[in-house]
Amino acid sequence: MYLPILQIHSEDMPPYAIVCGDPRRAKAIADKLQNAKELAFAREYRTLVGEYNGVRLAVVSHGVGSPGAAVCFEELIRAGVKTLIRVGTCGSYHADIPAGSLVISFAAAREEGLTKQLVPSGFPAVADPGIIAALEAAAAEVPGSGVVRTGITVCYDAFFTGVEELPHRKYKQAGILAVEMEIAALYVVSSLRGARAGAILAVDGFADEDLSEVYDPHTDAVAQAVEREIGIALEAIARLARSE
Ligand SMILES: O=P(O)(O)O[C@H]1O[C@H](CO)[C@@H](O)[C@H]1O
Ligand SMILES: O=c1cc[nH]c(=O)[nH]1
């Protein structure tokens, strides 16, 4: 089967995939694989395949924001991908989860618009527990400094605030760890289409006004956290593959 938006053939796709927003991050992840090959680079969707410790996997960029990312997730699942791990960045709500920390998201509050067009408001955006366990186990093994926390994240469409206030204060008070823009789509689409998903995020700053300073996602601390989460996601996939 030919997937017209990603511009890939399902026959070329393995059952495991790492997904991320940035096409350059996708290439950086694929550079850690053996026999890596780029299959397509269409719009924001860069698809590469390779092997990690004998496990074939794809690495695919989905761009910024849920509608475009959902197109990517839908086509990957149609192509036969069964396990998707998002390796992203996020803004933290808490002073003790500063830039350079990692957040494993086991569920997402659905503050974006895309999933409202797919499922009723009561439908949860949840990760696969096996993937979360594999990410946590891999995080305990992959070296690196900095906080690693597992919890709930919130998914927005807006990155910059307009004249309406984003509900940061309420979600922070409710114990949400961090904000990003695609996990709700990933978890809902995966649930609907019979795939399993999880996500790990590198904190690149603070998301709300109480804590925010100058936003700079290009620091050494963030780069090191991204490097570490890539290692954790690859190890998690190796663990999942070994257990199957
Ligand atoms: O680093 P990525 O994977 O792109 O994730 C986060 O970064 C982007 C915003 O800068 C959004 O896509 C958000 O979800
Ligand atoms: O969506 C995002 C991603 C990274 N950092 C943020 O503050 N927000």
From TrEMBL:
It is an enzyme of class 2 (transferase). Residues 15-237 form the Nucleoside phosphorylase domain. Pfam families: PNP_UDP_1. It comes from the Bacteria. It catalyses: uridine + phosphate = alpha-D-ribose 1-phosphate + uracil. Its EC number is 2.4.2.3. PANTHER family: FI09636P-RELATED, URIDINE PHOSPHORYLASE. This is Uridine phosphorylase. It comes from Paenibacillus residui.
